[in-house]
Amino acid sequence: MSALRIAFMGTPDFAVPALDALRSSGHEVVCVYTQPPRPKGRGQQVQPSPVHIYADDHGIPVFTPKSLKKEERQAEFAGHNLDVAVVAAYGLILPKAVLDAPKYGCLNIHASILPRWRGASPIQHAILSGDEESGITIMQMDEGLDTGPMLLKREVKIRPQTTAQSLHDELAGMGSAVIEEVIDKLAEGDGFEPEIQDDALSIYAPLLSKEDGRVDWNKTAIEIDRQIRALNPWPGVWSEVDGKRLKIREAIVTPVASYPDHIGSLCGEGDSAGTILDKDGHVVCGGRTILQITKCQSAGAKAMDFVSAVNGGYIKPGDKFS
Predict the structure, then answer these.
(1) Is 300 left (phi over 0), alpha (psi -120 to 50) or beta?
(2) Could you tell me if 199 and 218 are in contact, meaning their C-beta atoms sit under 8 angstroms apart?
(3) What whole-number percentage of the chain has pLDDT above 70?
(4) pTM of model > 0.85
(5) pLDDT < 70 regions, the chain
(6) Residue-level pLDDT at 253
(7) Closest to 204 in 3D by CA, of 109, 114, 89
(8) What radius of gyration, in Å, describes the C-alpha atoms of the chain?
(9) 273 and 258 in one domain?
(10) Which residues contact 260 (CB under 8 A, 6 or more apart)?
(11) Whole-number pLDDT of residue 257
């Protein structure tokens, strides 16, 4: 098997396991492309990306262009004399000149079973929508948004306890194994039979905003539970009581049948939705359902269980979320 010359193009934590797998393989990662260092955290100190830090620690040359549209940047990329580029959550559009520069083009590690959930937030949207599975797709990149031919796919189950963080970590590990398998196959001269995506089955997963985290208590407890599991830690899930925001970190769907009739009867549509029933954090939701908030956080305070929030005076039974 001939060693391939690889450019790795990625930015966040999700991409690091794949870079580590390729660096540890029999192939040569000749350069890393990642987003430029940016202000981060409360202190807004400029910090390099996780991929940048990994590359520096292992002596891999790093390039941080703000764009790849300029001809000099494209010539610089072509000058690496690459066999293939591997892309994982890089964050920049790759022009045709960049896509065509490596011998085998550019391969993307995408965190969904394409064509479902093209776009920036496939992990979160899969959980939000109640999908039963997610996975990794290795795709030959073209000029579209996650529209290229698919080379290899692997699936994982989404369980009732799956969170965005746990699915992120599982798919990051899976992506590292699957891309290594694809690269080895390319190096051995084995061809792929690319599967063309059916555009009619595609769904777009747009970037998330803080407003996506606002809870609508007229939704069912199952829907709100998915929102909590999908949108923590970013952008976070929240609701307001008397104009004060409370972040909801964790919750449990609770069967209404387990409650006395006088509590269960509150679980209806309309005015009762959002009512906090007790100090244990049971809240009335739409569809005659109940959600128990088990971990929450008030502004300026640390995350705590709901009983502690009540004892601390942040919230009380009988309050109603807006």
Answers:
(1) left
(2) no
(3) 95
(4) yes
(5) 1, 257-271
(6) 95
(7) 114
(8) 23
(9) yes
(10) none
(11) 66
